Amino acid sequence: MSYTSSRIEANNLDSPLSGDTLHLSFGKTKQGTGQFTLHQFRDHDHFIAYIPSLNISAYGETEDEAFDRMVNVVLVDFFESILELGPEQAKSELKKLGWSQHRFFKRQFKANSFVDRNGVLKNFNLPEETKVDTTVVTV
Predict the structure, then answer these.
(1) Nearest Cα to 22, choosing from 129, 105, 88, 134?
(2) H-run or E-run covering 74
(3) Could you count the other beta carbons within 10 Å of the beta carbon of residue 26?
(4) Per-residue pLDDT in tens (0 to 9) along the chain, 139 residues
(5) What is the pTM of this model?
(6) What is the b/e burial string over 107-134, where b = at least 16 CB atoms within 10 angstroms of the residue's CB?
């Protein structure tokens, strides 16, 4: 699985990005792709990488280590697990996370929620002055 990313400072975001998207294929070759908003910040002695729309996180001793773990371990595990469920159960699990299935293109999903800087910090009980970097990750 490969990725590309672009970094945007969280305090410059007054509105949500284009939104997190997910494409799942349950054919002979099960595969998934997606675009996700990832927030990174320091929490005590570790760096945290967090994707609110999937409610998943990774940590590392550096920002790069947290990012790499998210992309190469946590997201890989997420895709393997969701694809193993099959289409109906995957749809049900994604719905619990606030995702909706495209009306016509049944393999496509979109996150219905947006978590701003304050929402991210609230989930982690961090001081208000904590710097949060936001990255859009495509896998």
Answers:
(1) 105
(2) none
(3) 18
(4) 444 444 433 333 434 445 899 999 999 999 999 999 999 999 989 999 999 999 999 999 999 999 999 999 999 999 999 999 999 999 999 999 999 998 888 889 999 766 666 666 667 777 878 888 888 899 9
(5) 0.82
(6) ebbbbeebbbbeebbeeeebeeeeebbb
Pure H helices in the chain = 63-69, 75-85, 87-96, 117-124
E-assigned strand segments in 1-139: 4-9, 21-25, 31-43, 46-51, 56-60, 99-101, 108-111, 133-138
What are the distances in angstroms from CA 79 to CA 31, 51, 57, 74? 8, 14, 14, 9
Residue found under tokens 């994707």: 51
Backbone phi, psi, residue 124, to 5°: -110, 0
**Hunting for tokens 């001793």 — which residue is that?**
61
Q: For strand 133-138 and strand 99-101, is the pairing parallel, antiparallel, or unpaired?
A: unpaired
β-strands 21-25, 31-43: how paired? antiparallel
